[in-house]
Backbone:
């Protein structure tokens, strides 16, 4: 049974399979803002060849009662097919992509390149005074890379938000 | 478009409504819906009731829906027509009333262009509805209408908006027959029998059981009320109803403890507080019911039946959740109880009833009415007499209310034996609900006695609908408890804000008798207790719509009361108690 005294917030990665119709993302986002839930990350894209369904991945946080409530609220939206709490339903993989612009010259530039190698980031754009790195990975890996770039001329970041799937043969 | 399409979108729309069993539409015309009104003009299957403001149309449809169990249908124009309907839509959403609201929209090529009377209706109504649609292609029109009816009435019912651009209703469109399914929306209605068995076991073990039933039982249909009544009588458990649930269990039954919550009875609230097993059916543990959550029914093991999974574990943790239709779950519990040979602790139940009877003896709804000639009328007495006189006449009576003190007094002192007889705005608390709702009820039940118990402030919020009553000769009785104050707000100001009556005096009131006359209705007035019965009888005998202006005690407050932020066992029973006696905290003051 859920306990209202459990006030420790946890992070939850929730995947929602929805009908790919206009307004469906607004419904999901409106639900979160209207009921005061957090959105730490959100991605959405059609996921079948016919474009009939989209998958929304939301990273949110709250107490166990709040997370259960979020799932129940999502589940009752009319165009929602399935709601899965990947964090609770067993192991899962979550990845995001980031583009990171670093501006600098001389030793700073060399060091940025060296660290990028260590993180297996790709250079997708370069000028004599700047790089754009492309980095894929778990959220904390991207956080760590961005943190390191802060002293090396970090200028701009664009992140995709996470895509996530359950490990093994389970599907939602 | 193929050549054989001979019907316009508007005609297809009406055909779909007819196939969905629609007999009545409450609406108001305008530019964007002219083609629909033209199609309405050319047919006789569906009756249109012209309201005086779109908000009235939605409340009328709510009254129609709640008193019949059918879907209420509204038709309004684009822009202001749609925005005026929003309050009613949220009201229906909060109280789970099935409504289809058809809104006109500017033609598809003008959408987003800030055209005349354009509003982003689907955007505005997204959080105000269970679901909404913008019809972009004529070939989707009939399917969307059928789907909308399915969504509105299945699962937890609610309002659905269909936004109809003008070109869609003008151009020819194909028809498709009604469907009763949806690719993703398939609400669960059958209970999990494992959970039912767990629930029966908890119920059998209970020493201090309690049943708490709400509007979901009424939405589930009369069979659910019957099953609830059977189960309650079979188990011998005490039962309370929420504001929305009144009528789902016969009020005259000795096992009925009255309404619970902020203005509920002493015995209902203390039984909730002290029970060791709570069976909640079609109720949502709303803040008006629970009081301070961390003090709410702490010793009880809880079973919660609800068709909406998001209502379970929202405010109160539940040991045995049952996501199902209330009627089906109650029948399963009934069967489970009969099949189980587990013993019941009869002595414990008897001692629990002795305790409840002690609480009952407090007579928490008591009031003192001076009967000498010329005495001022107590509002509770006015409702008590209205109840007694209508009951003696054995008429089929439907009651609607506005929102405020009169609403709570009506809930306390008017008693219902059957479901669907009590229409009130519970969740949203919409002043101005009662008159248009009564209109909708009277349309559905032309021969019944329909009474709007009102306050003098609330009634003015949709007073224009007196015109509709007059046009359709609807003999609705408006029974105003006139204390010249926005009474409930005044009561809170008295109890919590040092009697500083900021802006709650109803200054410059109209003469309600003359107002009735101006609307071709009948006006009457009672100023003292000796006039009351005559006015009630005259009102009930009158063949036309009536406004009965009942002057009541201005100082009367609605008791019992659990001040916000207080617990069930911290009730104010009367004016001899003050809010400071139970220590309303700053946190409580911040609640509504």
Residues:
């Amino acid at each position: 049974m859920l306990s209202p005294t459990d006030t420790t917030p946890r992070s939850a990665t929730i995947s929602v399979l929805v009908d790919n119709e206009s307004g469906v993302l607004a419904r999901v986002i409106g639900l979160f803002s209207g009921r005061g839930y957090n959105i730490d990350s959100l991605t959405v894209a059609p996921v079948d060849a016919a474009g009939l369904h989209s998958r929304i991945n939301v990273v949110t946080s709250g107490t166990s009662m709040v997370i259960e409530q979020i799932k129940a609220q999502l589940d009752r939206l009319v165009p929602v097919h399935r709601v899965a709490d990947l964090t609770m339903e067993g192991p899962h993989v979550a990845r995001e992509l980031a583009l990171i612009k670093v501006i600098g010259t001389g030793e700073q530039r060399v060091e940025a390149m060296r660290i990028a190698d260590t993180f297996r980031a790709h250079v997708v754009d370069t000028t004599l005074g700047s790089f754009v790195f492309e980095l894929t990975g778990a959220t904390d890996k991207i956080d760590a890379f961005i943190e390191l770039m802060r002293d090396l001329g970090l200028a701009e970041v664009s992140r995709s938000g996470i895509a996530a799937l359950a490990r093994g043969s389970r599907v939602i | 478009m193929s050549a054989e399409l001979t019907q316009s979108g508007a005609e297809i729309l009406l055909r779909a409504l007819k196939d969905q069993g629609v007999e009545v539409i409450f609406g108001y015309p305008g530019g964007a819906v002219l083609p629909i009104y033209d199609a309405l003009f050319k047919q006789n299957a569906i009756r249109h009731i012209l309201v005086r403001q779109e908000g009235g149309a939605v409340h009328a449809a709510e009254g129609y829906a709640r008193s019949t169990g059918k879907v209420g249908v509204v038709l309004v124009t684009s822009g202001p027509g749609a925005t005026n309907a929003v309050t009613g839509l949220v009201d229906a959403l909060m109280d789970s009333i099935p409504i289809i609201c058809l809104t006109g929209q500017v033609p598809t090529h003008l959408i987003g262009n800030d055209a005349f009377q354009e509003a982003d209706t689907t955007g505005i109504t997204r959080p105000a509805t269970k679901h909404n649609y913008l019809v972009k292609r004529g070939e989707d029109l009939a399917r969307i209408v059928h789907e909308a009816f399915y969504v509105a009435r299945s699962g937890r019912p609610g309002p659905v908006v269909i936004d109809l651009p003008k070109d869609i209703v003008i151009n020819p469109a194909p028809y498709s027959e009604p469907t009763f399914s949806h690719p993703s929306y398939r609400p669960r209605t059958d209970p999990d029998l494992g959970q039912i068995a767990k629930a029966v076991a908890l119920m059998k073990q209970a020493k201090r059981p309690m049943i708490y039933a709400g509007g979901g039982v009424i939405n589930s249909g009369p069979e659910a009320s019957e099953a609830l009544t059977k189960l309650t009588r079979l188990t011998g458990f005490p039962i309370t109803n929420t504001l929305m649930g009144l009528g789902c269990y016969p009020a005259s039954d000795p096992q009925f403890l009255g309404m619970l919550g902020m203005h509920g009875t002493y015995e209902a609230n203390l039984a909730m507080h002290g029970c060791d097993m709570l069976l909640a059916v079609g109720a949502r543990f709303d803040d008006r019911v629970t009081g301070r959550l961390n003090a709410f029914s702490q010793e009880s093991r809880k079973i919660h039946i609800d068709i909406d999974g998001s209502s379970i574990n929202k405010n109160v943790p539940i040991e045995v959740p049952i996501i199902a239709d209330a009627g089906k779950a109650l029948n399963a519990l009934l069967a489970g109880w009969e099949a189980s040979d587990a013993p019941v602790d009869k002595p414990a139940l008897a001692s629990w009833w002795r305790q409840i009877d002690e609480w009952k003896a407090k007579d928490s709804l008591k009031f003192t009415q001076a009967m000498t000639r010329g005495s001022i009328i107590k509002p509770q007495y006015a409702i008590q007499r209205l109840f007694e006189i209508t009951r003696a006449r054995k008429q089929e009576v439907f009651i609607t209310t506005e929102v405020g003190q009169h609403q709570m007094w009506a809930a306390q002192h008017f008693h219902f034996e059957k479901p669907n007889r009590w229409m009130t705005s519970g969740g949203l608390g919409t002043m101005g609900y009662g008159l248009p709702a009564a209109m909708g009820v009277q349309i559905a039940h032309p021969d019944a006695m329909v009474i709007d118990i009102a306050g003098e402030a609330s009634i003015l919020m949709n007073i224009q609908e007196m015109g509709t009553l007059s046009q359709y000769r609807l003999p609705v009785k408006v029974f105003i408890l006139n204390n010249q104050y926005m009474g409930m707000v005044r009561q809170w100001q008295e109890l919590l804000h040092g009697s500083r009556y900021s802006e709650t005096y109803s200054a410059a009131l109209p003469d309600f008798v003359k107002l009735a006359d101006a609307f071709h209705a009948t006006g009457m007035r009672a100023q003292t207790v000796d006039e009351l019965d005559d006015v009630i009888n005259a009102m009930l005998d009158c063949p036309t719509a009536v406004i009965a202006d009942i002057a009541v005690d201005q100082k009367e407050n609605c008791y019992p009361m659990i001040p916000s932020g207080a617990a069930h066992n911290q009730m104010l029973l009367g004016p001899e108690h003050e809010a400071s006696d139970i220590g309303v905290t700053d946190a409580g003051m911040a609640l509504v």
About this structure: The interface with chain A takes residues 122-123, 126-127, 130-132, 134, 151, 155-156, 182-185, 293-294, 308-310, 312-314, 316-319 of chain B (CB under 8 Å). The radius of gyration of chain B is 25 Å.
